[in-house]
């Protein structure tokens, strides 16, 4: 009876030991099959990264181009705004003056062409005309219109005045008669650059008359800037 009990106990221990070995084998790291990434998978990932990198580079180039275009447009707008501001600041230019501010009498004759100084200033908007030199200086590039009137008392010498731009004669006006007062006039529209000068020359060996009624005058104004 005792032998039977011992035998049963031995069988039970062997059974338990076998179960532990099986369990240890089931959880052994060597028995677990972990999948490893293959070379084809790595190549696919690299290809995807390369595509995304190329897309990002293209996007950066497009943004840089757009930024350059916007900067150029902004610069052009700033230039136009500055030009418009300049035009507004000097957009009103006009003057009118008589030869004498007071008194009466002849100016001339002189043996050379002489710049006439119109001292009786009626208006000088923009201060482009200098009543001390008789010279008009264009403040901006644009189209300007000038008119001048010449008055003579008759006899000899007669009256002859020339509209002059930068030293070159443009138009002339004069008065010639044996006796009595007479007048002549002329005008011109000129394209002037900023800094160009316009004035009236009294022709050599000629004379011009003026008095308190202001017959002899010189006027000009800016038609529009360009």
Describe the protein.
This protein has 226 residues and is of the alpha+beta class. It contains 2 helices and 13 strands, in the order ααβββββββββββββ. It has helices at 2-27, 39-90, and strands at 94-98, 105-107, 114-115, 120-125, 129-130, 135-137, 142-152, 159-165, 168-175, 182-192, 197-202, 208-210, 217-225. Strands 3, 5, 6, 8, 9 and 11 form a 6-stranded antiparallel β-sheet that branches. A hairpin with a 4-residue loop joins strand 5 and strand 6 (135-137). The protein is rod-shaped and about 125 Å long. The termini are far apart. 21% of the residues are buried. The model is unreliable at 4-9 and 18-24 (pLDDT under 50). Residues 1-18 form the signal peptide. It is found in: Secreted. This is C1q domain-containing protein. It comes from Neogobius melanostomus. Residues 60-87 form a coiled coil.
């Amino acid at each position: 009876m005792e032998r039977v009990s011992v035998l049963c106990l031995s069988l039970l221990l062997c059974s338990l030991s076998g179960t532990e070995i099986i369990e240890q084998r089931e959880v052994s790291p060597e028995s677990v099959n972990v999948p490893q990434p293959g070379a084809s998978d790595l190549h696919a990932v690299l290809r995807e990264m390369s595509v995304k990198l190329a897309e990002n580079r293209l996007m950066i180039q497009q943004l840089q181009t757009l930024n350059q275009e916007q900067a150029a447009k902004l610069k052009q707008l700033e230039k136009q705004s500055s030009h418009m501001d300049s035009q507004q600041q000097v957009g009103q230019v006009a003057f009118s003056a008589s030869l004498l501010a007071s008194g009466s009498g002849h100016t001339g004759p002189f043996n050379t062409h002489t710049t006439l100084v119109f001292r009786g200033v009626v208006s000088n908007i923009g201060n482009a005309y200098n009543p001390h030199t008789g010279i008009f200086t264009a403040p901006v590039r644009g189209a300007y219109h000038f008119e001048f009137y010449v008055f003579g008392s008759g006899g000899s010498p007669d009256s002859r005045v020339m509209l002059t731009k930068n030293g070159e004669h443009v138009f002339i006006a004069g008065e010639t008669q044996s006796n009595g007062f007479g007048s002549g006039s002329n005008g011109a529209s000129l394209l002037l650059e900023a800094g160009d000068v316009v004035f009236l020359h009294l022709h050599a060996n000629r004379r011009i008359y003026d008095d308190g009624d202001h017959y002899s005058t010189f006027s000009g104004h800016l038609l529009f800037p360009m």
